[in-house]
Design brief:
It is a single chain. The model has no long low-confidence stretch (mean pLDDT 90). The protein has 127 residues and is mainly beta. The strands form 2 sheets. It has a 4-stranded antiparallel beta sheet. A 4-stranded antiparallel beta sheet has the order 2-7-4-5, with no helix packed on it. The chain is elongated and about 45 Å long. Helices cover 4% and strands 58% of the residues.
């Protein structure tokens, strides 16, 4: 699916997020008023410690925490990078004016990751 022609680009960078334990929301965000969005990038880098079980970093909404994307963070050591594939992003359209949750499932027993999300937002009508 094609990206928007003149998007408003939002970059979210979280330098350190623990992916062990109860599963937490790293950030809550909403796009510009009236804009719908496409995920351009969702990636993680293991920062410190070693994850000793895979876990998920997700984009979703309250009640459906992986509604828009789910990225597996593998077992690994610092420096291991994961990125959501193009096919997983192509058919995802983030709704306008709805709070999106960037969260994890807490399945790893140890580890911290840096998370990067880039979203293209487009408004309907004149700008």
């Amino acid at each position: 699916m094609k990206f928007f022609d003149k998007p408003i680009i939002q970059t979210i960078a979280i330098p350190l997020h623990a992916v062990d334990g109860a599963g937490t929301t790293a950030m809550r965000f909403t796009g510009p008023p009236g804009a719908r969005g496409r995920i351009r990038q969702l990636s993680t880098v293991i920062v410190n410690d070693t994850t000793v079980a895979t876990c998920l970093v997700r984009l979703g909404i309250t009640g459906t925490l992986a509604a828009y994307a789910s990225l597996v963070v593998p077992i690994g050591v610092a420096g291991v990078v994961t990125q959501l594939g193009k096919a997983a992003m192509d058919n995802v359209l983030l709704p306008a004016d709805l709070e999106i949750l960037l969260n994890d499932d807490g399945a790893a027993t140890d580890g911290d990751v840096a998370i990067t999300v880039i979203i293209d937002w487009e408004r309907k009508g004149p700008r």
